[in-house]
Amino acid sequence: MSKFSVLITLFAALATPLIMARFRITRIPGTVAEIIMGIIIGKTGFDLIQPSDTLTYLANLGVIMLIFLGGMEIDFSIFEKGNSNNGEKSPLGLAFGSFMSVLVMSIILSLILYYTGIFDNFILATILVSTIALGVIISLLTEVGLLKIEYGQTLLLISAMGEFIPLVALTIYSAIQQKNYFSALLLPTIFIVAIFLLRRFKRVYVFFDNIDKATTQLDIRLAFFLIFTLVTVAEQIGAESILGAFLAGVVMKLLNPKPDTQEKLSSMAYGFFVPIFFIVTGVNLNLRTMLKDEQALILIPIFFVAFILAKSIIFLILKHRFGNKFSFAAAILMSTTITLVLPILQVGQNLKIINEAQNGAITLAAIITCIICPMIFNKILSSAKSQRDEENQSME
């Protein structure tokens, strides 16, 4: 049965882009379509997929590969640019200011949720509301070809902070709640290991180029070695595996791999592992049970609005650099959240801070952001590009 479930999942991954192409569905990102496909074939829909260790493992590898590629997508040259000549902030400065504003807004919204009795854990609410779906945003920015320009890199950095900082906070919070203070103190270990791996392989990477062959693919082997080393270290010290995956991507990027290395890794990830993660996310969502719970129904719109409001402040930070339309589109896109929400809710449920109904409701609110926000972003982006093209033609 487990092999049959994997087969159906792989067929769904193949069929999704074909269906989108057949019906000319262009405004829904591929990752969002995969979540919807998972809902259709999963518990909510036809219930064709049965949970299995194999499928769970492949889905976990999918999110690990997705976050690893997120680390590799960051252009570290922007860290060296500082402020531009006309006094404008660098993408790094804009991203930092944007996420700090998001964090402040998340604290305010979480206090409201706490004092109104809607959600009784202030810290967990803050971590949840401040998260940004780095994986989904990477996929979308890749699809629309924005990763190589300043606007795309700024959005990538905001989303990276929106995943990395809450992830570290979750690790520390979980350790404290479980009174595992030693685990929290060990958190710097993973950064030390990442630095060691970078220094260790920096010199030998040139040697790899000299002896690499088509049958050895040393760069790919090194990438997977880095992933599994840092993921293992993260898990051993009680941190989330995706923290190790992100650092592995950063290390790989700093080793200055050949351009085709990232292309090969992206092909493997987006061709196999990543679609499984998004489809399984939809498969595991049981809307039928959840919609019968009144408490869950109330939490869905509340958290959806909270996700949007927390990121709305980004518009004010970016509008002076990118204009109203692109800044509004950025604020909407940054409201997308799912990747880190899932482990946060799992930790909350394991610690008995939230129940299954709350887990499902917040998950659904996050999935709705993945469906609605990228669609709005694409629509605004298309409108802005069309307007810019018309202005350029009129000037000619």
Automatic annotation (TrEMBL):
Cation/H+ exchanger transmembrane domain segment(s): 14-379
Keywords for this protein: Antiport, Ion transport, Membrane, Transmembrane, Transmembrane helix, Transport
Location of the protein in the cell: Membrane
Name of this chain's protein: Cation:proton antiporter
Main location per the UniProt record: membrane
Organismal lineage: Bacteria, Bacillati, Bacillota, Bacilli, Lactobacillales
Origin: domain of life: Bacteria
Membrane topology per record: Multi-pass membrane protein
PANTHER family linked: NA(+)_H(+) ANTIPORTER YJBQ-RELATED, NAPA-TYPE SODIUM/HYDROGEN ANTIPORTER
